[in-house]
Amino acid sequence: MKKFLLSWCALVLMSAVSFADTYIVTGGNGTLFGSTWDPNSSCVLVEQSDGSLVYTKADVTLSAGDIEYKYLTKEAGWNGWQLPKDGNKKLNIPKAGRYDITFTLSADKSADNVNAVFKEEVTVVPAIQLHSNIKEANWSSLDFVWNADNTVASLTVSEVQGAKTYEFGLKFDGAWKANGAVITKENNTTNLSSGDGNMKLESAATGDYVFTYTLATQELAVTFPEGETPQPTLPAVALMGIDGDWNTGKEFTPAENKETTTVVVTLAAQTYEFKVKVDNSWLGNYGEMTRENCTGWVFEDTGLTNAKIVADMAGDYTFTWTYATKALSVTYPSITTIVDAIDAESQVAIKVVRNGQVLIIRDGVAYDMMGQVQE
Questions:
Q1: pTM over 0.70
Q2: Which terminus of the chain is less hemmed in, N or C, by CB atoms within 10 Å?
Q3: How far apart are the C-alpha atoms of 84 and 79, rounded to whole Å?
Q4: For the chain, how many helices (H) and strands (E)?
Q5: Is 90 exceeded by the pLDDT of residue 260?
Q6: pLDDT at 375
Q7: CA-to-CA separations, 287 to 139, 246, 284, 324, 360, in angstroms, rounded
Q8: Which tens digits make up the pLDDT trace of 151-168?
Q9: Angstrom distance (rounded) from CA 145 to CA 142
Q10: Burial per residue of 236-269, b for 16 or more beta-carbon CB atoms within 10 angstroms, e otherwise
């Protein structure tokens, strides 16, 4: 009976306990916080006797500059309470060196104080990473290595495919930096002191590309490999559904200039629906192509409906796709050919459209596009 009463009392006490939230601080400096913007940060604030919460990071080596941070709870992460609610707080480090940093959150969780105690001056260089889609379709990070006197950091990215455009940026101690520059073999340096937006690398030859960052000038340079730039691989283009075939389609044949590609399709006089397939992307257009409006039609992604073409006569239709602009043009069969077929010696003929049908009138007689007499 005594054991039962003790167990019952313990259960009552446990049920009365309310488990408090775990308050953490996280931010954009991996050296100070152990990781960057981590909702599971190990920087846990400890409650003091006055109700305030404190976290201290001792002997941490930091570069000069602003460090952004904010408070949240481990339980709710980014979906719960945050201080500040919008934006981030900033901690200014006036000069590079070793510091003791103490974060204090008020008892009512409405305000904070950060005390940065300078201990000694040291030469500090940031950890730099290249973050890009150069090596993988999904973005990944590669580490730069500093030289002996910490003036230049470099990274060699091997076996980069030539004749492609890649996007990238740099991370300095986890903080993103990019200036929107386009790096080419002819223009291979850029200054990172200002600017915004992902940078681009337009590769030339396939091989090893060396990225070099100079601390004093904040300049990034890329050394390109020797060799010829390979010809870019042209995408496969097919006309889908024009004859009811939505599986295989009709393949286009690239022109010698590699700027356009064409396919010739024999059509009857009627309206057709179709899409253009470029590699694995299905492109469409809302419009309806006609003999009078059949050039420079831009096709866009799969959300669009099927395009239409009004074939006003039986014959061969030449579809021409321009790679750079994703534009389609159609060359209709010549009406002159039909007139000549009606009467090779006659040059007196006119084209009319009656009830949506194209007719040739010669000497008062109407002919359709097949040369048949129409009433």
A1: no
A2: C
A3: 13
A4: 3, 34
A5: yes
A6: 62
A7: 37, 19, 9, 21, 27
A8: 999 999 998 988 888 999
A9: 10
A10: ebbbbbbeeeeeebbebebeeeeebbebebebeb
